[in-house]
């Protein structure tokens, strides 16, 4: 490897779109009987994939092989599962299990050695039961028979992993593998997002797919959230300054009366 390939390209930012989440289906009575844990009601798969979906694919995302920049994905399951820390070192970066309850899954993405980057951490709430919106008359957890008729439950989050000032060698790897672009227009149902309750109906009817429109909407949501955090930070900073001034004033008053 040439020495200049271990030099960081200052001022350059490059990103790769990914999705992470899960799909869950209700087990049939026969499938449940065959399990060592017959109280388990669902089979689910949690995964990290490329954002774009392959044509006519029956899974969400996954058009691209991410192993050119991802070395390992670690999924930390609930402690009640045997070997709850699952390391996946090659595609597909996913874990399939059965269970009856929802819980938080920690996801750790380790990048290839050429990146020189620290691991990326995120969390995903395992979703087993059909989506509902606030104020809906539908039960949060429908009867098993009703849930089975509703089909698979999909819960996916779009994100972009951003690399700032990448090493030249890593930049060469990334540019040699451009991501498959998301479709401009909706061809399938869209993934439901709690920030957009109106998308619930549009998410029904098959395997969902992310689009460029959703990518823009997600970027707008992230920017709105960032601005909110900045505004709240500024507000608390101003309150702290005011309290410090009040404290200083009280100290002077105490010194004057001493």
Automatic annotation (TrEMBL):
Pfam families: YEATS (PF03366). One of its GO terms (cellular component) is cytoplasm. PROSITE patterns: YEATS. CDD domains: YEATS_Yaf9_like. Component of the SWR1 complex which mediates the ATP-dependent exchange of histone H2A for an H2A variant leading to transcriptional regulation of selected genes by chromatin remodeling. Component of the NuA4 histone acetyltransferase complex which is involved in transcriptional activation of selected genes principally by acetylation of nucleosomal histones H4 and H2A. The NuA4 complex is also involved in DNA repair. Yaf9 may also be required for viability in conditions in which the structural integrity of the spindle is compromised. Component of the SWR1 chromatin-remodeling complex and of the NuA4 histone acetyltransferase complex. This is Protein AF-9 homolog. It comes from Postia placenta MAD-698-R-SB12. The gene is YAF9.
